[in-house]
């Protein structure tokens, strides 16, 4: 070893050991360090053994079965291994047995509604898309919920979110005026009618003409619609069906009025029913045959219902707008007038619905329990529901509770049968929170299971049970802040005094 290596080693040793330390002192120092380390290892070992013994004693004191199981007849052991045959099934069937499978929903195409509370995923609904996929055969909807449960906001968001997809919205009767600000916000129009207003509605207007209709077809359609509308108005006021003699009196008076004016008005028809021309009244009995129906229609032009139907229309139903609504909030206290206005607006709407080029449309019947008490309106609603696929429309009935259907007509009557058929022709039933005394009737009407029935009184604001044909979903409806402002129906209760 060279002198340089020796000097480097001595220099290094001087950094970790005392300078000029004696060998005996260095050995004693190392023995002391080794003893301290050994004592620490023993203390740690004793601590670990003490902890292990405590855990072992605790385990022995617990009531655990022996490793080999209990002895005796309760041993429950098999002589061999348990072998089960393999089973293969669909996920739809296994979902009821395997708790970690979630409902896949109705797909991602359509209108976003909110969150599926069972799966946590987004819930999307569109009756036209579901019909195209064969998942439903009837695009009609029944929506029920107590006041303040959020059903009106759901209805408004469903049809307004459909507008970007090219759909349009018709509200043939809005008793509370809730849809008027929505119609104006989306670029549509609300027709407001009521006593003291300048607006007039002529039931005999020509209405919308389809581009594909020839002159002969249009003349026949217009004559049939006018005749049917006058008859429906008379039945509504009389609260009964018309006799054959009364139908004859209406037909002859309407034909005479059409001959004398290009666009007849209701007072012309009333005058000709009460005082028919000699050319039509050959046996001098026509005036007597139509006397009651003439005086019933006279209420619309000169009686307590006057002021709305006694002249040419000052408003027009434009089916090309994104949304049209008939605001009846100014006549909400007169149920007969509401039914008459609804009958007229339904005739307007039907002429637009019959247009093959009209596209896909929503038809919203809000506060439907008030409208279904009139036979003429109920028959019109039933016809529209049966022809929904032909017209390309999706009807929506909005109720407070499904037991409202029991108030339509007497048990076993034709009106009760029509009301029940509306529910049968709606494969989408949405139920928001219901009172406890309504659970039985709701479950019976919709065929709910016991679990679904128990869900209804516990649903929160905006939460609903969706029954889409044979599938069930519990959905939390979600609103954008702008929608929340536009759809608010509590402004008078929550605003400043």
TrEMBL record:
Give me the stretches of Basic and acidic residues compositional bias: 1-24
| Renumbered residue ranges of the record's region Disordered | 1-49
Task: Give the transmembrane region(s).
Answer: none
What InterPro entries does the annotation carry?
P-loop_NTPase
Keywords recorded for this protein, A-Z? ATP-binding, Nucleotide-binding
Tell me one GO molecular function of this protein: ATP binding
Entry protein name? ATP-binding protein
Supply the source organism for this entry: Agromyces neolithicus
């Amino acid at each position: 070893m060279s002198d340089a290596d020796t000097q480097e080693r001595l220099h290094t040793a001087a950094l970790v050991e005392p300078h000029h330390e004696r060998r005996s002192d260095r050995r004693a120092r190392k023995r002391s360090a080794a003893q301290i380390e050994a004592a620490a290892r023993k203390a740690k070992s004793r601590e670990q053994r003490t902890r292990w013994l405590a855990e072992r004693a605790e385990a022995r004191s617990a009531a655990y079965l022996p490793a080999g199981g209990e002895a005796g007849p309760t041993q429950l052991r098999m002589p061999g291994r348990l072998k089960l045959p393999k089973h293969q099934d669909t996920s739809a069937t296994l979902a009821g047995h395997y708790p970690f499978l979630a409902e896949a929903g109705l797909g991602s195409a359509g209108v976003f509604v909110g969150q599926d509370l069972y799966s946590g995923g987004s819930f999307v609904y569109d009756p036209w898309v579901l019909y195209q996929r064969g998942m439903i055969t009837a695009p009609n909807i029944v929506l029920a919920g107590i006041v303040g449960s959020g059903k009106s906001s759901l209805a408004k968001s469903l049809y307004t979110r459909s507008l970007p997809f090219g759909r349009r919205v018709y509200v043939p009767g809005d008793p509370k005026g809730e849809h008027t600000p929505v119609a104006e916000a989306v670029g549509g129009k609300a027709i407001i009618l009521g006593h003291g207003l300048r607006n007039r509605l002529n039931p005999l207007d020509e209405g919308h003409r389809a581009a594909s209709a020839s002159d002969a077809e249009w003349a026949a359609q217009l004559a049939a619609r006018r005749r049917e509308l006058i008859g429906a108005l008379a039945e509504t006021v009389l609260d009964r069906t018309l006799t054959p003699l009364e139908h004859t009196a209406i037909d002859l008076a309407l034909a005479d009025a059409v001959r004398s004016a290009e666009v007849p008005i209701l007072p012309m028809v009333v005058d000709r029913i009460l005082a028919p021309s000699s050319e039509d009244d050959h046996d001098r009995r026509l005036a007597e045959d139509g006397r009651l129906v003439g005086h019933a229609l006279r209420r619309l032009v000169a009686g307590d219902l006057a002021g709305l139907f006694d002249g040419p229309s000052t408003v027009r139903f434009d089916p090309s707008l994104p949304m049209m609504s008939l605001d009846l909030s100014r006549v909400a206290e007169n149920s007969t007038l509401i039914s008459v206005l609804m009958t007229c607006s339904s005739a307007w709407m039907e002429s637009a619905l019959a247009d093959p080029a009209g596209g896909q449309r929503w038809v919203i019947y809000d506060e439907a329990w008030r409208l279904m008490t009139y036979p003429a309106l109920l028959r019109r609603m039933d016809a529209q529901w049966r022809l929904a696929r032909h017209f390309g429309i999706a009807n929506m009935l909005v109720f407070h509770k499904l037991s409202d259907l029991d108030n339509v007509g007497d048990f076993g009557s034709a009106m009760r049968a029509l009301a029940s058929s509306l529910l049968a022709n709606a494969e989408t039933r949405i139920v928001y929170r219901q009172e406890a005394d309504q659970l039985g009737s709701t479950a019976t009407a919709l065929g709910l299971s016991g679990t679904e029935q128990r869900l209804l009184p516990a649903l929160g604001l905006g939460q609903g049970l969706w029954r889409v044909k044979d599938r069930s979903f519990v959905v939390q409806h979600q609103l954008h802040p702008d929608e929340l402002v536009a759809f608010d129906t509590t402004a008078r209760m929550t605003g400043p005094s």
